[in-house]
Amino acid sequence: MLSAIPAMFSSEPMIGNPFPAFENGFSPWDFDLFSAVTQSSPPKPVVSSSSSEETNRNQTNSNSGSDEPNPPASLIDERKQRRMISNRESARRSRMRKQRHLENLRNQVNRLRIENRELTHRLQFVLYHCQRVRTDNDRLRSEHSMLRRKLSEIHELLVFRQLQQFTSAWPCNNVTSEQTPSLIT
After folding, report:
1. What is the spatial distance between Cα 49 and Cα 33, in angstroms, rounded to a whole number?
2. pTM score over 0.85
3. Cβ atoms within 10 Å of 5's Cβ, excluding its own
């Protein structure tokens, strides 16, 4: 950024300023052009763009309504020092905030990983038991159908025996048991 500044605005002190009225950020509303030219003031070195801007601001503020002298260099240095300390503190707070935020995100990631692991274990447990219940259910269904068939066969056998007893009780049927084949084996 400083490389874009012409050589006449470099940080080295200038030997002589041919335009002293423009030195402090001249604007036609702040100065009387002729009084600034007639008063000769020693040239001031330009340190950097930010410090010259503040110097210009301070001088513009002091020249805007009264004829107070420019603030001494020690006051400007003190302000720069305070601003620098303030900026460092602000940067330190910002870094600490960022560090806390990162730590919170890491903690949240760890909590979510643990919760994910627990949920995965619970899901595996439920799936295992669900499979066992399905297997038991299938076994019970097949056992149920087999028992139903047996019950149906037993019921048919009982009905047949009752029918046999009923027909043997009739006197017209003199058929012996040796002549009828037995269904029960």
Report:
1. 25
2. no
3. 14
DSSP codes, 63-101: HHHS-PPPPPHHHHHHHHHHHHHHHHHHHHHHHHHHHHH
Q: Would you tell me how many other CB atoms lie within 10 Å of the CB of residue 167?
A: 12
Cα distances (Å, whole numbers) of residue 76 to 47, 52, 163: 12, 11, 126
Distance (Å, whole) CA 29 – CA 67 = 14
Instruction: Determine the longest span between alpha carbons in the chain, in angstroms.
Output: 161
Torsional class of 25: left (φ above 0), alpha (ψ -120 to 50), beta (otherwise)? left
CB 177 within 8 A of CB 161: no
What does the pLDDT read at residue 168? 78
Return contacts of 27-33, CB within 8 angstroms, 24+ apart. Answer: 27/60, 30/60, 30/63, 30/64, 31/63
Determine the Cα–Cα distance for residues 91 and 99; give it in Å rounded to an integer.
Answer: 12
